[in-house]
Design a protein that fits this description.
There is one protein chain. The chain is α+β, with helices and mostly antiparallel strands. Helices cover about 50% and strands about 10% of the residues. The strands form 3 sheets. A 5-stranded antiparallel sheet has the order 5-9-8-7-6. Strands 3-1-2-4 form a 4-stranded mixed sheet. A two-stranded antiparallel sheet has the order 10-11. A hairpin with a 4-residue loop joins strand 1 and strand 2. Helix 4 packs antiparallel against helix 5, helix 8 crosses helix 9 and helix 20 crosses helix 22.
């Protein structure tokens, strides 16, 4: 958390970089805002600052209708940090409380519900139920404004246990009823599709990210065309298909087709992780520039470190693609998807996306004779998928990255490169430097040739911490550009 003086300075300057990192509550109006709210700057003595929107709401403040603090980008710290509070936030945003309650959330983190409540109150200013309630009302507002669903359906789809709880929570957060919140005469999306605007902190090199995903796209599961990325997802209550493209302003347009609207919040959280929408590109660029990489950073402003919507899929992709080309890896993956991937319902299929990537259990059951791979690679894939299926390797939203890495490295055929790539993309670790990667090595050699003296890349990478994953992507981008020229 920033100091109060730093927070107020950001509010005075209406600095959008701090949106979502903290919330400004004005005691005289009873309203909380994002730092960049265009309203008149409140007097310093009338302002309180909160780490989360849930803490502000718990303190009796309601969300500003002008700046929409609930629609601001999320704080990067919940994706970058690996402590219990951050892991809990990732799980809550993925819908863990709605699916299993606070007891299940606490058990997954290895705490009692009382211990977890005390920890989150001390760290975030609100308990797990309040944090989950904020996520529910955010999902509810999305459905109210983006669909024509009946309010009763929205209440249960957003995770509320009753319509009364839904009405009371919306009134507490926004000081108006759900029906008033639905704008009169608004043009709602079609019933089977939800259209959202997902905020991010600029700059954002969406075209580079799209190209990165395009060369790895698996037919049947993913599709890239017309400056848009479409893919299927496996969610708690059924499959979904998402399509994302660059929108107007600092937003990504996201279209979702959901088998069950209860999965909306989880789907949005996974899209944000996939596109790295909660990154702070200014902070990342400042660190990398100070390490001596100004030219490289300026060549690729707003580069992201993409995550993944399904850690199991990413882990299997990583192992299957070891020591072969991207094209060859796609061929094997497409055979796997065609063989044991599940078909999507017809109403969800879109742009050639017709299947969902198979589960770890299904992959573990594939006979060795069905794999056109070396025996050692087959052993690794089967060991990995079995470990993911029985939970001995956990790559979920609330997993401990260090425990996950140790368990991965104990499997046959998983080395530092595979572990690093899985940490970077499946676990969202922002501090992974893929020093042994061939593309990274070539990029470093190319940069050394262009400079008067070779760089000490080991020390330089250390100076880029905690953003070494972005250094890895910058080097990949540089090598790809050099190979094309």
């Amino acid at each position: 958390m920033f100091t109060s003086d730093q927070c107020y300075q950001a509010v005075t300057s209406r600095d959008r970089r701090f949106d979502g990192m903290f919330f400004t509550a004005v005691r005289t109006t009873g309203i909380f805002c994002r730092p960049s709210c265009p309203a008149r700057t409140p007097r310093r003595e009338n302002v309180d600052f909160f780490v989360t929107a849930a803490a502000a709401a718990d303190a009796g403040f309601r969300a500003c209708r002008r700046c929409r603090p609930d629609a601001s980008p999320n704080s990067p710290q919940w994706d970058t940090r690996g402590d219990v509070a951050a892991r809990a936030m990732r799980l809550i945003r993925d819908g863990a409380v709605d699916r299993g309650g606070v007891e299940a959330l606490a058990a997954e983190l290895g705490y009692s519900s009382r211990q977890l409540g005390r920890l989150l109150h001390a760290e975030l200013g609100a308990g797990p139920l309040a944090l989950a309630r904020t996520e529910r009302v955010r999902t509810a507002r999305t459905l109210i404004e983006a669909t024509s669903m009946p309010m009763s359906d929205i209440a249960f789809a957003a995770g509320f246990s009753s319509i009364r709880q839904f009405n009371d929570t919306v009134r507490t957060m926004y000081a108006i009823s759900p029906r008033q919140l639905r704008r009169v005469g608004a043009e709602h999306s079609v019933a089977d599709e939800v259209v959202l605007r997902l905020a991010y902190r600029p700059p954002f090199d969406f075209s580079h990210l799209l190209g990165y995903l395009a060369v790895r796209a698996v037919t049947g599961v993913e599709h890239v065309a017309d400056d848009a990325y479409t893919r299927s997802m496996r969610l708690a209550h059924g499959p979904a298909v998402i399509t994302v493209r660059q929108g107007a302003g600092d937003f990504v347009e996201c279209r979702l087709r959901l088998a069950d609207t209860r999965d909306l919040g989880s789907a949005v959280a996974r899209v944000r992780r996939l596109l790295d929408l909660d990154a702070d590109p200014e902070a990342i660029a400042a660190t990398l520039r100070s390490a001596g990489l100004r030219g490289l950073v300026d060549d690729y402003p707003g580069i992201r470190s993409p995550g993944h919507s399904d850690p199991v899929e990413l882990a299997v992709r990583t192992v299957l693609g070891q020591q072969i080309s991207l094209a060859a890896a796609r061929t094997h993956l497409e055979r796997l998807v065609a063989g044991v991937g599940e078909s999507l319902p017809q109403e969800l299929s879109s742009d050639g996306v017709e299947r969902v990537f198979p589960t770890a259990e299904a992959i573990a059951a594939v006979p060795a004779s069905d794999w056109a791979l070396p025996a050692s690679r087959i052993r690794t894939i089967r060991a990995l998928s079995a470990a993911l299926a029985d939970g001995s390797v956990d790559l979920g939203a609330g997993s401990d990255r260090e425990d996950a890495s140790r368990n991965l490295l104990e499997l046959p055929g998983i080395g530092p490169w595979s572990n690093g790539y899985i940490r970077m993309r499946a676990l969202g670790d922002p501090d992974v430097f893929m020093a042994s990667d061939l593309g990274v090595k070539k990029a470093m050699a190319e940069l050394d040739e262009d400079s008067s003296a070779p760089a000490d890349w080991k020390q330089l990478a250390m100076n880029c911490s905690p953003w070494r994953s972005y250094l890895t992507h910058l080097l990949w981008a540089h090598h790809a550009r050099s190979a094309q020229s």
